[in-house]
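Why do we bother with a discrete structure alphabet at all? Because it lets us treat a fold like text: something you can write down, compare, and reason about line by line. To make this less abstract, here is a complete entry for Chromosome partition protein Smc. Read it the way you would read a sentence in a foreign language you are learning: slowly, and without expecting to understand everything at once.
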Amino acid sequence: FLLLRKFEAYGFKSFADKTELEFGPGITVIVGPNGSGKSNISDAIRWVLGEQNIRNLRGAKTEDIIFAGSTKRRPLGVAEVSLIFDNSDHALPLDYNEVIITRRVFRSGESEYMINKSLCRLKDIQDLLTEAGLGRESMTIIGQNKIDEVLNSKPEERRLLFEEAAGITKYKHRKKEALRK
Ligand code: ATP
Ligand code: MG
């Protein structure tokens, strides 16, 4: 399987300085006072994994995810987040033992995606992640309101979650693409 080794953020929301988190074996718990940026970490992870809806990141417009400045610091012009995965058992179909996925956005709205520091398309990242079961609607990140949503959802909606968890979704995507060609 795929192990997240390291998280790096710069200019994303409250992370005005380059922030690095290394994840060791076992479970990692992040604690801190209210407003210290815990949820911003999960927002950042969601974002780099391809989230396109700013509202799912608790913002209204793209600029809301770029460091907005404080009394002592000027706003930044760019937000960048990287996830460094241990790919030694090749859960991601790439010939590298370490895979770095990076997303960057400028205040102008221009966006960049990178795999191992080479520019790529969003689709390249989505395809790669779907391969490893980290699809867009996957249960990789479960937000506080998600539990209620699952309990209250219609059976057809809930079915999508089970399909994702069972690894069927990628085949459905492929079928759809194949039929389009
Ligand atoms: P809680 O324990 O209440 O859930 P938390 O640790 O999850 O708190 P977050 O929601 O991650 O806290 O962080 C909120 C903080 O991030 C707020 O102080 C907010 O001002 C700051 N913040 C959000 N967006 C930006 C931005 N674009 N620029 C600067 N700071 C930001
Ligand atoms: Mg929070």
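What the structure line is telling us, in plain words: The chain has five helices and six strands. The pocket of magnesium ion (ligand 2) is lined by residues 38-39 (CB under 6 Å).
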